[in-house]
Amino acid sequence: MGDNTTDAITPFLKARRAALDPRDLGFDDGPPRRRVHGLRREEVAQRAGISVDYYTRIEQGRAHGMSDSVLDAIARALRLTAGEHSYLRNITRPAQHGDHEHSCELADHPRPIVPAAAQDLLDALDPASPAMIYGPGHDLLAWNRSGGVVTFDLERIEEAELNSALLIFNDPGARELFPDWQLHADETVATLRGDLGRQTSPSRLNAVIHRLHTENADFRRAWEAQRVAEQSHGHKRIRNPHVGDLDVTFQAFPIPAAPHLRLCVYTAPAGSVTAERLQRLAALVPEPV
User: Which residues form the HTH cro/C1-type domain (predicted)?
Assistant: First the structure.
């Protein structure tokens, strides 16, 4: 994975250059003939309005103290999304975070505490709408009745493993639970990278990424794709072992009382097969005493 600027910025900018079609940007394949897909460094520099030498030093991690205007110009030149732009800002300024000075062991970074107000919000939701509270490193911190069994049986998992990214890649039952496992895994990795661009102190997030990069070959392959995403809503198919296949939508948003935490809620259209199955799923779990 790498813990310094060069390890992060070089593959990211190369991947973003390769993802662009020169013809869409007015460049042709005239001499010299292209040896790689995408834009050449000089074409990115031209679009960004900076020298080829300066862009080369940036891509190689040898430039320091880039201004916001330069980073913005490179983002425009490479047609970066908002999430990719944030990630670029983050990896060019690692000293702001200082995470390279800290341990990458998960055990050295405590899981966040769920404030009472956030727990009250979770408890007030319809039990037939599975809901979970996530921490900054994708830790699963709390859930309602159906949320604890809609995918993995969360009550049976050791606290150290209660992390959605760890479960997707390391739990042997994940591929059975998610018919679209590869898509889900790729989105998880892209979201982890996107989170690095938004969090001001991503120590626990870095520790999760470090562990997965060390332990899991599927994660390493997905990480090398350099995708960045923000996953605040979407669609998911789940093969639930208790009630059968579920086709749900989800929305995730910061909790006002604890903006470093996110509440994720699964729903289904009223009267649908999935909605009926979610009702049955909630009924299977006893109400807390």
Answer: 34-85
